[in-house]
Amino acid sequence: MTSTITRQGRITRRHVLAGGTALAAGLAAGLPRGARAADKVIRIGYQKYGSLVLLKGKGALEPALKDLGFSVTWTEFAAGPQLLEALNVGAIDFGTVGEAPPIFAQAAGAPLLYVANEPPAPEGEAILVPKDSPLKTVADLKGKRVAFNKGSNVQFLVVKALRANGLDYKDIEPVYLPPADARAAFEKGAIDAWAIWDPFQAAAEAAIGARTLVNGVGLVANHQFYLAEQKFTDANPQVVDAVLKGLYDIGEEVRADPEAAAKKLSPNVGIPAPVLAIAIRRQAFGLKPLTPEVVEAQQAIADTFFELGLLPKAIKVADVVRKAAS
């Protein structure tokens, strides 16, 4: 299930910023004619796992959008940074990511808007080590090679975990790899630790006995955010609301029966249903608009990355949060 955009999703932010116009044209060319911006369509980007995958599989969104005169196209991405790069260049209108990707995307000038979030799920991400690794604590990571997807939520987990154990970001050797490549490097012993999220986390635990050095509990919230392109949302608020309602309904179904959701996801994700059920139980459901507390927590992440020199400029998260209807 690899689309044209997915294969191009490994591009770096440098490439996007250097050639945004050409890349936007290339990405748009890879979409069906009905997905062009001039048509009444919402282009949704999703990752291999989560509520959007279930909503796509159920087919419940299409009738609701048809009543509004809209259709929908779906494109899969390897991770949140790649998804938001596509939003930045105008290839999608809506998607879901973790905490860090929208911060980097906002700093890069992406026209994104936070429209909703799920509750915290700190157990749904972790720093893993091989089952026979001599590393026992986060403090043991000093001088070690730690892999993670650059600009993803687990990058903040790494920062927080290091600081909580008397280390700094510069005390490790970051290895920037997307999930599939990181898993391969992890199994080969090319890296010492791997910061990753579910369902990749649950799959590594089950398949190769990966051991959790630390998860997000007490360190990070691990919110899941839904984002939309600003102009699209301003022009079509009812369409964005229809997608959010579909996601809320799916979330309630999953919360009521995680095992059934795992069975539905398993064929698409390629992970056994019992393993997916573990990941789903570590996830949180209950979609709602961002509260001031969530915005404040997101701002703290942005400030941390800026202090570390990982962001090119300071940002104000509240500037890109959808305002509640009056």
Describe the structure.
The protein is of the alpha/beta class. It folds into 2 domains: 4-120 and 223-320, D-Maltodextrin-Binding Protein, domain 2 (3-Layer(aba) Sandwich), CATH 3.40.190.10; 122-215, Periplasmic binding protein-like II (D-Maltodextrin-Binding Protein, domain 2). Helices cover 45% and strands 15% of the residues. The strands form 2 sheets. The chain has a 5-stranded mixed sheet, with helices on both faces. A 5-stranded mixed sheet has the order 7-6-8-5-9, with helices on both faces. The radius of gyration is 19 Å and the shape is globular. The chain starts with a helix and ends in a 19-residue tail after the last helix.
Task: Give a topology summary.
Blueprint: H1 4-8, H2 13-18, H3 20-29, E1 41-46, H4 51-58, H5 61-66, E2 71-76, H6 80-88, E3 94-97, H7 100-107, E4 112-117, E5 125-129, E6 145-148, H8 153-164, E7 173-176, H9 179-188, E8 193-197, H10 200-208, E9 211-215, E10 225-229, H11 230-235, H12 237-256, H13 258-269, H14 273-282, H15 292-307
Parallel strand pairs: 1-2, 1-3, 6-7, 6-8
Antiparallel strand pairs: 3-10, 4-10, 5-8, 5-9
Organism: Zavarzinia compransoris
Main location: periplasm
Domain Solute-binding protein family 3/N-terminal: 41-258
